[in-house]
Write a structure and sequence with these properties.
It holds the Pfam family PK_Tyr_Ser-Thr. By secondary structure, this protein is an alpha+beta fold. It is 38% helix and 17% strand. Bound molecules: adenosine-5'-triphosphate (ATP) and 2-acetamido-2-deoxy-beta-D-glucopyranose (3 copies).
Length: 357
Amino acid sequence: MDYQTSLILATSTSSIFLLLIVFAVVMLVCRRRPPIENHPRRSLNFPDPDLNTETVTESFDPSICEISMAELTIATKNFSSDLIVGDGSFGLVYKAQLSNGVVVAVKKLDHDALQGFREFAAEMDTLGRLKHPNIVRILGYCISGLDRILIYEFLEKSSLDYWLHETDDENSPLTWPTRVNITRDVAKGLAYLHGLPKPIIHRDIKSSNVLLDSDFVAHIADFGLARRMDESRSHVSTQVAGTMGYMPPEYWEGNTAATVKADVYSFGVLMLELATRRRPNLTVFVDEKEVGLAQWAVIMVEQSRCYEMLDFGGVGGSEKGVEEYFRIACLCIKESTRERPTMNQVVELLEELCRLM
Ligand SMILES: Nc1ncnc2c1ncn2[C@@H]1O[C@H](COP(=O)(O)OP(=O)(O)OP(=O)(O)O)[C@@H](O)[C@H]1O
Ligand SMILES: *[C@@H]1O[C@H](CO)[C@@H](O)[C@H](O)[C@H]1NC(C)=O
Ligand SMILES: *[C@@H]1O[C@H](CO)[C@@H](O)[C@H](O)[C@H]1NC(C)=O
Ligand SMILES: *[C@@H]1O[C@H](CO)[C@@H](O)[C@H](O)[C@H]1NC(C)=O
């Protein structure tokens, strides 16, 4: 072997040796990398509302995840009372900023509100998959000891209840076209829930459960009482859900089964509240009679007195438009569930009304 050959041999042997060492180091480093936390869970995605609802595609959904108590404690500054933005019947709501910069609403459920949430994680998995521009997104949840916390997208303009009943009429952003848009958007959100392969009945549609974003687009919130309607449970509902004034007459007759038509009724009441600024649990005097908001509307529509019901004198609304609005609301609050339209039909009627404006 001459000098040159042995030199080549030596260099190539040492390079192979070096390569092996580099490879070993790379392997070691890779194996030492910590497991990624909060990796997306594999889940079913509900189809987009515009797509055919029959097709349920399987895919990764990185949007809903379990968020640690440590992260939430930092985000809410130890659940500081300064950050409280709401106090619902299920617990306090905080405005918080997660470490990734996203501003969220954090709802810490009261411990005594938890009986209904025995399968909390499963429930969150279901609700976290709902995607619609008029439904408040659930971004995550936290289970820590006895605490159950929900993390929602944050909606800048608070609730419809606030704008209707806690602000003065002067310069209200709730112009007639905005109000009609809000009803159309709530209708779209409800139609989406009702149109899912396994329909979801909200059961507590009311103005405090309609949240508004910075453009006053409506998003339906609070699925605290919503239960999936599956065949086995659709006719036996053990608890009376809902809020005074929004509940359909069949509830009073003891028929508390959760139905989509009960949501349609509550939606009709919401339409009346939005046009009149009257709380549905208060009565109105008409022809020396004291009646509920729904009865009042029926009487007034019969007497062609729609304009008198408006709280703002009708600025921005045509006579035809206002009459059609109340006609739609009165369809939704029909006593007979069969006479009430479906939410899809309501969406069509309201979109037509929006086009007229
Ligand atoms: N995602 C959110 N973004 C911004 N504010 C919110 C959000 N969720 C709730 N809030 C605020 O917190 C308040 C309370 O909300 P929550 O849904 O807990 O109770 P509620 O609707 O008033 O009553 P209930 O629990 O009986 O339905 C809301 O009215 C709203 O002002
Ligand atoms: C957070 O609150 C708990 C109980 O209220 C308290 O013990 C703890 O010291 C607080 N932590 C911080 C960082 O303020
Ligand atoms: C109502 O909604 C339509 C379409 O969604 C939008 O173009 C319009 O600006 C909205 N009007 C108001 C007053 O918000
Ligand atoms: C009506 O509802 C409002 C808001 O939920 C509540 O503050 C008020 O006390 C209720 N009034 C009656 C008479 O029930």
